[in-house]
Amino acid sequence: MELYDVVIVGSGPAGMGAAFEIANASKKNLKILMIDQEQFSTGGMRNDCKMNFTYPIGFPEEYWSADQANSMMDQVIGYLRPDILPKTNIDIYRKRARRLGCDLLDIRQAHLGTDGGLLLIKRLLAELNAVGIQLSLGETMLSVDDTHQVIATDKRDIGYKVLLIAPGRKGFHFLQMMLQSMGVPFVDNIVDIGIRVETRIEHYPIVNDYYDPKFYFPEKVRTFCTNSGDAHVVKERYVTARADVWYSVNGHAYSAAKHESNGLTNFAILKTVRFTAPLASGQAFAENLGLQAALMGGNKPLMQRVGDFRLGSRSKENSFNADLFDFPPSLRDCCPGDISLAMPAKILRAIWKAMKNLDTIVPGVLHPSTIMYYPEIKLYANKPQYLDDHFRVTNHVFLAGDGAGTSRGITAAWASGIRAARGMLGLLE
């Protein structure tokens, strides 16, 4: 059995942030291993690579104060080297929003696009190698024994002095299994449920002034992850513990410098739902919504034109024509239907109210041709019981990243990796 000072599970921004912090901060020649079940480095940098550099975006306020986040921001920026995007003409949108009891946040942002994100990952992996970190891709962690400080993978047993488990959102269920096996208490009671909106850029012109506008509406509804230019809606495959398959939608765009615009923009509009007793799992609730949508859509996500929705009609194939509905969906592998049959009424009412407010702030977004895709569900709300301020859960095991609830996005995930790494260094010293 090979022994390491540090083992990091997950090669996304949280794992990378921790790896660089440990390698550069320690005066010892530590033996560091990073593994990932995928054959390539994963994480939010692979999909659109949109980064926010203003607190509290991405930083769950139950774990982060403004001082804590800002104290690490320069360090995060030093590794990611973002080109901050300009914003213009946003005051008029902010005034309109405030008159409706809504808010438009002013966030420092950078956007590399999916292709630019892959180049960033390539650079970071080369820098990890240069500081002596071993990387094993395509290796899956199966179990952990913190009493003997050993993890088992599908290839070998690995000994560690300290262990960081840093899964992203797709590692939500994996992390739950690890927490249960270690006897770590956690709650899973928060989930974001909503739709992805796609329309022509001229119907949502704010994106010409502010790449990813962050609108906050009443009833815990917000816009999230706007993409424009060469922008596309995609579907993501999820598998439940019972091996049932369902799909969520998401969005991304390619680098503006290298790709011609397709004239479209897309963004999520999500409602945060917090459950109380006796519900055991927000994840299970969200999975059942996803399975219901897949049942209605023939194992595909649903899509509906705003024009049909307003008439109380389901969308059909002929809803996607060349008259008022003058652009084809960027995600073809979807089923035209009626999202109101699949989404809980209370959630849909809150989202539709927010969309009408948004159409007042940015007139045109509710053009009849606008497409609503369902479901878009974010599963990143594991809330483990942490033992200290460095996200430690057992004697030698730490957590970080979106799957562990310590972050919501690339920048904060990297910062959470730094925080965990400082606690790990304290044990090693």
DSSP strand tally = 21
| Alpha-carbon distance between the two ends | 23 Å
Whole-number total of structural domains: 2
Q: Please mark out the parts with pLDDT under 50 across 5 or more consecutive residues, or reply none.
A: none
Which CATH C-level class of the largest domain is it?
A: Alpha Beta
CATH level 3 topology of the largest domain: FAD/NAD(P)-binding domain
- The second-level CATH architecture of the largest domain is 3-Layer(bba) Sandwich
Provide the helix percentage: 25-40%
Q: How would you state the average pLDDT, rounded?
A: 92
Strand content: 25-35%
Largest sheet features: 8 strands, mixed
Instruction: List the helices and strands in order.
Output: EHEEHHEEHEEEEHEEEEEEEHEHEHEEEH
Name given to the CATH homologous superfamily of the largest domain = FAD/NAD(P)-binding domain
Separate helix tally:
9
Helix vs. strand class? alpha+beta
Label the overall shape: globular
**Radius of gyration, taken over Cα atoms and rounded to an integer in Å:** 22 Å
The spatial strand order of the largest sheet comes to: 4-12-13-16-11-19-17-18
